[in-house]
Amino acid sequence: MSTATRDLAGLTARIAEIAPGLRVETGPGATGPYAYDASNYRVLPRAVAFPRTADDVVAVLRACREAGVPVTARGGGTSMAGNAVGLGVVLDFSRYMNRILDIDEEARTARVEAGVVLDALRGATALHGLDFGPDPSSHSRCTLGGMIGNDACGNRSVRDGRTSGHVEALEIVTADGVRAVADRSGLRAAEPGDAEAVRRVARLESDLRRLVEDNLALIRTELGRIPRQVSGFQLQHLLPENGFDMARALVGTEGTCAVVTAATVRLVATAQASALLTLGYEDVVEAAEDVPEILRWSPSAVEGMDEAIVATMRARRGPDSVTGLPEGRAWLYVELEGDDQAVVHARAAELLDALKARGRMTGGRVVETPAERRSLWRVREDGAGLAARLVDGGESWPGWEDAAVAPENLAAYLRDFRKLLASHQLTGVLYGHFGAGCVHVRIDFDPATEAGRTVMRRFLTEAAALVVEHGGTLSGEHGDGRARSELLEVMYSHRMIGLFAAFKRIFDPDGLLNPGVIVDPAPLDADLALRELPLLDTTFGFPHDEDGFAGAVRRCVGVGRCRSDAGGVMCPSYRATGEENDSTRGRARMLQEMVRGEAVQDGWRSTEVKDALDLCLSCKACSSDCPVGVDMATYKAEFLHQHYKGRLRPRSHYSLGWLPRTSALAGYAARPVNALLRGPLGKLLARLGGVTTKRRIPAFASRRALRKTLRAAKAVEAAKAVLFVDSFTRAFRPEIAGAASRVLADAGVPCTPQDGLCCGLTWVSTGQLNIARKIMTRTVDALDNGDDRPIIVAEPSCAAALKRDVPELLGTEAARRVADRVHTFTGALTDLADQDWSPPPLPENVVLQTHCHEYATFKGRRPADLLRRLGVRGVDEAEGCCGLAGNFGFEAEHYDTSIAVAELALKPRIDHLDGRPVVADGFSCATQIDHLADGRDIRALHLAELLDPAADHTGETP
Question: Which among 150, 324, 748, 835 is least surrounded, fewest beta carbons within 10 Å?
Fold first, then answer.
């Protein structure tokens, strides 16, 4: 056993002794995901602890102080500056210390633990007509503790300023393990009856007061000059004229002085009315020139972005994902708020006229609908991720993503900044809080090579001098972290740098709290995550990633949208378990560790990586919802292929992966096979096949039923399309093919059925890629026969496989030609149906479960939109995965997770249908619904059955 291993074992044993039951994880499978945040850095911690109480935090800090081990506090892990990674013990507050302790409506305050996600707080306070003002774009996953650590702002910082302006008190644990409260007038022990704690905290406050008294002039002249001056420590709050506000002084210290466990924050009233303007400009400098005029109108938000972000959003999620922007190559969002909607709307129109008169805009409009507003705000909020991997495949990185100047200096600063970029032959994608003078920019640095790192260092040093020349600050809300702490000496005098160090020493004399940040900084180019790596030999081609598999998994830059509890579908397993390792980000980071080959040394054979991927449902939602387009389903398929190459596989890979073949055989004797599977022998066979016995195996359809359906489905007139009869429709519900054929014929798209082919999906999802390629090749050969008619697929997962997996796995022109012809049933009715087609009478309201693969792959062709267009007034969509996800929910070890995912959105709707029909095109979704119905008379309808002109529309087809 190595010395490091013995030391780590001793530390964890000591923590367990002080805090029995505290969860502490070690080993690369646990620490790998925590080596990263959303920055350029990688620092592998020795352990990760998951405290449940402040006493747990005390135990960790005391044990680490005894052992001389550093501690880094972490919330959502979305830091772009590298202030949420550390080489000792990482404290993850988001897992358990995420409770809202109190909301005082009368006082307009809330008391929350450090791991509370901002959106959770906002959702709770909204019930009282209140809100927490600062709203970073990461609001769906950032924690209050992280916001306090960075002094975060957000999109409405013009109105609400920084987090520090909303903090009333902080509950902290000092470096030596003492609990204290920092409030607006000083520091006190959290437990007045603990005489030793009272003495130590009093000494701490006395030392701090003396430090401030000795440096009054220095603090008054160098700190608090502009609204977004976040860099360094905010010691101006300790000045006598500011009442020795210890709470606000600790905001923005990035976990370097104390560990925050809870906070009391001030709330603001929710706006009663608002209006959003979108303004177009030729470039971001022209947009910045109009900011001072806009600020005269007292907006709540003034946000800017350039064309690269919009182009990437449209490429990734479809052209309809961004609507409502006027002509231009850069845009401003301007939000006005007030008490009366008519008054606010009138002010918006007046502002628009005033800006038109200035002559800089290329266009502008007031956004009218809530849906359009949500769509536009999402583009801005996903800016960091969208800018990271652009539509042309180029990569960009943070490092200089948070500089700020006074708003009146913004245009001049941006003009000079773009010249600086050009002088280094660099390109930046700009967006940010223009109304507060804070500009986020991702730059196409090359941090993987020595030459690229040299350019990066030189540029950052010159950029620091430039922003200081314009009276600005290195950091406006993200903190200095590892990215900019070294550059503080460019911004501040040597005396101020020394004052920062003295302030930290009073709190943390041993330098164990988040070392390398702000004080005694690590070099800005130390511990960079990116480096040159060899190309891996893979079966998938990864055509959109220059470095193949390594480049694909590198798409994850840590912005953490996959850790959101709502909005979109990603990531169902994280939403069910709450574990970082079960998020798309956590898995991507483990794959990055595998490719790197340091902490994870056994490559494709890694059990740690296999375990991280285990609960991935292969739903593909991340390929659409993730701003950088991570496709974990494909990465998992490749990993499983390589991991089990030449080895015995899990039993379910054979029983479920080969389902298209076995189901075809079962169709010849469907009745006896179904009877056998319903009996005791069926349970035995399920166990032998690794399949859960808690589900009923779906009944196989007979070949006779299939032949009957296919004969009836043949077009009586010249077929305009091919109806691809997939393996699931063929094996389990051939009636869907008949209904689809009738609906399409009624809509003016008569089809000819194509049977006997398979998309290969089940072999892909189980990582049997050599077999999948053979199946796909046969299918492509049959379909690419000179016929250019559309291929319509009733089963969404099979349509997605033909559309995306087939061309990416085969990489042939023939495969791409076939993929270009593929439509889902929804897509066919959207794009191919006669303009004057109208369906039979439809119900007023339905519950809808959209298949994840359809959601992810066929952008802008959603069943919900079609149903509304066809006249269904109420479409209650279960937002999220159904939980079955093909083979996943049938595998014995995944059953519980499958049901936990279903309970997030689908099951509550099934339990409260109130007579509404359920629509679910996916076979997996329909099967899960049947299971959740638990004997109730509930059956999911395929959209084709709902629209079938031959149906009686009571839920049954003839």
Answer: 835
